[in-house]
Design a protein that fits this description.
The chain is mainly beta. It has no helices and eleven strands. It has strands at about 1-5, 10, 15-25, 35-40, 45-50, 55-60, 65-70, 75-80, 90-95, 115-120, 120-125.
Length: about 130
């Protein structure tokens, strides 16, 4: 049972990237999935979350209008499409969920149940 994040890279300000979070060993159909990031010297923050019950999408204020989270249950994958990237978006991006079925996201853009299943992270670097 694992999540694997990929798709990071080095882009210039204003560029785009699409991150993927692929699940293996379980189906994502019943799981809310969150994307988190950690910048150097900063605490990890919840960036976005997509529920499994109703497809509701939540975003932290700094990425609203620029990032889009989506899911493809047939591919067992959740995506984070990032446009208009800024240097402050630089960090390691992780996808994560709870160890059991969790259908909703909380107000902090995270799966509503305790998150303990983490992908390995993918580095996003935005140059100015």
């Amino acid at each position: 049972v694992q999540l694997q994040a990929s798709g990071g890279g080095l882009v210039q300000t204003g560029g785009s990237l699409r991150l993927s979070c692929a699940a293996s060993g379980f189906t994502l159909d019943y799981y809310a999935i969150g994307w988190f990031r950690q910048a150097p010297g900063k605490e990890r923050e919840g960036v976005s979350c997509i529920s499994s019950a109703d497809g509701r999408r939540l975003y932290t204020e700094s990425v609203k209008g620029r990032f889009t989270i989506s899911r493809d249950n047939a591919k067992n994958t959740v995506y984070l499409h990032m446009d208009s990237l800024k240097p402050e978006d630089t960090g390691v991006y992780f996808c994560a969920t709870a160890p059991g079925p969790t259908y909703y996201c909380n107000a902090g853009q995270q799966p509503a149940q305790y998150v303990s299943l983490w992908g390995q992270g993918t580095q996003v670097t935005v140059s100015s």
